[in-house]
């Protein structure tokens, strides 16, 4: 008899496992939930109150010398007052547009009382800006020392 | 002898598409979200039609309806000191005043004057855009 070697069966080596994606998906989902929860969706704008970065202020100052400013007071109830008369925002818009037609560099000074609400000041500034006023200043009274 | 081909194993549902979707959502929320510190009290900014887009960054002073204040989300009784500390590091820093629409101006205007006197270059009032 010939000496036949025994038959050996080799188990195929299992395929090398890919890098598991499960951990990455977990991390992604956690990050996703985090950003969904912490995100805020307020649409906010801004109105500049102090802007000293541009040099146009000096040019405006030189050109406004010939145009007398218009003073708008804001009372405690939030209504704008011009020369002692309460004026509605729509009428203020018309008035400013009329004045701007004759003097485009019309300066507007707003003097609000301390107890007026922020919305009142913003509304008057908004009206002036929409009317086309480019030089709006908010002033306040200070006690003399 | 008839040999039958074994039916091909059905491919497992791919999770690559799921990962793609999750990734897109993640990037979307990262880009659109704002991580600003919110005020510890309710602040509803006034409405305006002519507001400009607000850049990110800067210091945020929140003013509540009754005059309570917070700088970058931290309540403080002396906001000017905190604001001036921030401006001392960089005078170009934008100071955003996020005031409640019903807050009285006596809380806000003196602060703006002090900031202007201290050399602040940019101070802005936060508003909510109103429909034209």
From TrEMBL, chain A:
Intracellular or extracellular location(s): Cell membrane
Keyword line: Cell membrane, Membrane, Protein transport, Transmembrane, Transmembrane helix, Transport
List, in alphabetical order, the GO biological process terms annotated in this UniProt record.
Answer: protein transport
Asked if the Swiss-Prot or TrEMBL record annotates the protein with the keyword Membrane, the reply is yes
Report the transmembrane regions from the record.
15-37
* Gene Ontology cellular-component terms listed: plasma membrane
Q: Which Pfam families match?
A: ExbD
Q: Does the keyword Repeat apply?
A: no
**Could you tell me what this protein is called?**
Biopolymer transporter ExbD
Q: Which organism is it from?
A: Sulfitobacter sediminilitoris
TrEMBL record, chain B:
Q: Does the keyword Coiled coil apply?
A: no
Q: Which GO terms describe its biological process?
A: protein transport
Question: Which residue ranges does UniProt annotate as crossing the membrane?
Answer: 15-32
Q: What are the GO cellular component annotations?
A: plasma membrane
**Is Magnesium given among the entry's keywords?**
no
Pfam families in the cross-refs:
ExbD (PF02472)
Kindly list the places in or outside the cell where this protein is found, as annotated in its UniProt entry: Cell membrane
This protein's membrane topology, according to the annotation, is: Single-pass membrane protein; Single-pass type II membrane protein
Q: Which family does it belong to?
A: Belongs to the ExbD/TolR family.
Task: Please state what the protein is called.
Answer: Biopolymer transporter ExbD
What organism does the record attribute this protein to? Sulfitobacter sediminilitoris
State the organism's lineage. Bacteria, Pseudomonadati, Pseudomonadota, Alphaproteobacteria, Rhodobacterales
